[in-house]
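During the no-cost extension, the postdoctoral fellow (Dr. R.K.) reprocessed legacy sequence entries with the updated structure-token encoder. One reprocessed record is reproduced below for audit purposes.
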Amino acid sequence: MVVVPGIGDAESREGRHLAKVYDRLLQPLPLRASRTDDLPGALLAEFPWLAEACDRVADSLALQSLSRHAHFGVRAMLLVGPPGTGKTRFARRLAEMAGVGFGRLDAGGSCDNRALAGTARGWSSAAPCWPLQVMTQTECANPVLSIDELEKQPPAGGPYPRVTERLLGLLERETAARYFDECLLTPADLSHVSWILTANDLRGIPGPLLSRVAVIRVGSPLPQHFDCVLDGILHDVAHDLGCAASDLPPLTAAAIALLRKRFGAGTPIRKIRAAIEAALASDLRQRPPGATH
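Re-encoded structure tokens follow.
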């Protein structure tokens, strides 16, 4: 599909520059279909404590199958739960398994909505809205976009609109299909974005936004989920290093037993990952130069 039909004021100096930088948006971008046959099942195997979110994905894909366009799409959801429960990772793995683009924005670090809405034409920092930037980078018209820590927005009534206020129109398919971008000066079709929002709690999140998403409560993984968590962490470590999980040195039985004990005692996933990385690094440092596993 063509996301942007044309650049507004295209004959001006700034218009010509933007048309050159964002030329990819003027050409058809793929609406990608999921490359995983049983996507909800694959997600559930990796995130068994997020069964309700996996059901939401399954329901969305079932409804999407009725469309004339067999592309991937998930209805908006808000994952609410304590830090370190895999909410953001769920969104990223959903995109990876589906084979679509992915973008992440931290609402807790934004004092206003410019990170999401972009910067209007005329400013030296002019840039289109964040969804269009992700589409340009990933060459995908139906990415998964994750916005984290929505509850950490500043109080309403400040000098600038909040991210949650800008989100209202983007979460409505009808308005998202004709979203006017103030940098490109043209309507853009953002209706095929899959929104996965996260928060630690619901305080400060406006009711109109909550009415537009499925609110899903997320608990911490249970001790019996350790093997799934371990496999997921090793996948992420390998992904960040640019290698396959099989390229990582194997953890010793003693190390796995200690990690399992710490996980069962409630150690956060982030600390478990730090311990795994330390164990992997220790193994590699003790090997002779040039040795392989």
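The mean pLDDT is 90. Strands lie at 77-80, 102-106, 144-148, 179-181, 186-188, 194-199, 214-217. The remaining legacy entries will be reprocessed before the final report is submitted.
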